[in-house]
């Protein structure tokens, strides 16, 4: 099992400086959000090319780090159709060049439905779901062309709020190029926190075979008053059963990449040592 983190964890920096600083961490890979991490190269829509992707990948490789996943966190249900089209096109561009970066996964969350709720309190979930399904269908079709995976990350406050909804989108868009980015702590809120082990088990039972990447953090209470979610903290400092999760993850997906979240760069090596100790 390989451990990594967000490339911009050390800041938004010129590429050479970014990779050098990441090379000081005992990570195996990064989740690379191009515009968040690389400060000296324009990677906006229309700028990517095989040469640029290879150049970026080579700098990471010099530090012994691979690019495990491209983070392209769009809002696939954005209420402005013009903005939504821009974000879809940007994601599709990432899919086209993913292999040149050395990965096959492009990841995103699925946006919230607040605007739709304010417009139609009765039908907002139906409306949002229809838009999400249409977007995922288009992204999956593009992923199939390029041998890549759309990594969807369910979050309790977004459109894919539960393990059951994650399973539903997989069933309704029957493409094997849709994968799951599982961050179990993103599925917890005050309504299910006491049965968080059940939520984790349901996730594995419903889509364990589709996991392409895991995110790992920990959680503590009290809950956020605005959205009812617990506070996120670095792994090993909260109440989440990290050891149990890693064991189950290994049973379902041996050697899957695990991206560490809510951990400062200066604490990363300590957390990696802790996780490797649990994973023996």
Mind sketching the topology for me?
Layout: E1 2-6, H1 15-22, E2 29-32, H2 34-37, H3 50-62, E3 66-71, H4 81-101, E4 105-108, H5 114-119, H6 124-146, E5 149-152, H7 163-172, E6 178-182, H8 196-207, E7 211-216, E8 218-223, E9 230-233, H9 242-252, E10 257-260, H10 268-278
Parallel strand pairs: 1-2, 1-10, 2-3, 3-4, 4-5, 5-6, 6-7, 7-10
Antiparallel strand pairs: 8-9
Helix pairs in contact: 1-3, 3-4, 4-6, 7-8
Give the percentage of residues in beta strands: 15-25%
The proportion of residues forming helix, as a percent range, comes to 40-55%
Rg for CA atoms: 18 Å
Q: Helix and strand string, N-terminal first?
A: EHEHHEHEHHEHEHEEEHEH
Strand order of the largest sheet: 1-2-3-4-5-6-7-10
Secondary-structure class: alpha/beta
Average pLDDT rating:
97
Low-confidence stretches: none
End-to-end distance? 10 Å
Count helical runs: 10
Number of strands: 10
Shape: globular
Organism: Paenibacillus radicis (ex Xue et al. 2023)
Protein name: Sugar phosphate isomerase/epimerase
Pfam family, one: AP_endonuc_2
GO molecular function, one term: isomerase activity
């Amino acid at each position: 099992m390989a451990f990594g983190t967000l490339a911009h964890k050390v800041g938004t920096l010129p590429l050479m400086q970014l990779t050098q600083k990441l090379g000081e961490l005992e990570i195996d890979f990064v989740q690379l959000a191009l515009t968040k991490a690389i400060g000296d190269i324009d990677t906006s829509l229309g700028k990517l090319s095989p040469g640029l992707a290879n150049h970026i990948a080579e700098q990471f490789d010099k530090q012994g780090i691979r690019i495990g996943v491209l983070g392209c966190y769009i809002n696939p249900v954005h209420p402005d159709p013009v903005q939504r089209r821009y974000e879809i096109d940007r994601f599709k561009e990432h899919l086209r060049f993913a292999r040149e970066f050395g990965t096959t996964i492009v990841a995103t969350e699925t946006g919230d439905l607040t605007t739709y709720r304010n417009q139609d309190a009765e039908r907002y979930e139906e409306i949002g779901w229809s838009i999400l399904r249409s977007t995922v269908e288009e992204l999956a079709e593009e992923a199939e062309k390029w041998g890549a995976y759309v990594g969807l990350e369910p979050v309790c406050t977004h459109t894919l709020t539960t393990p059951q909804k994650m399973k539903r989108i997989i069933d309704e868009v029957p493409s094997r190029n849709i994968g799951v980015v599982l961050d179990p702590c993103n599925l917890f809120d005050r309504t299910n926190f006491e049965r968080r082990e059940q939520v984790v088990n349901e996730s594995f039972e419903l889509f364990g075979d589709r996991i392409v990447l895991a995110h790992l953090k920990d959680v503590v209470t009290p809950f956020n008053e605005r959205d009812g979610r617990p506070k996120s903290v670095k792994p090993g400092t909260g109440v989440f059963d990290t050891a149990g999760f890693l064991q189950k993850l290994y049973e379902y997906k041996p050697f899957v990449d695990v991206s560490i979240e809510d951990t400062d760069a200066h604490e990363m090596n300590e957390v990696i040592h802790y996780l490797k100790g649990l994973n023996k």
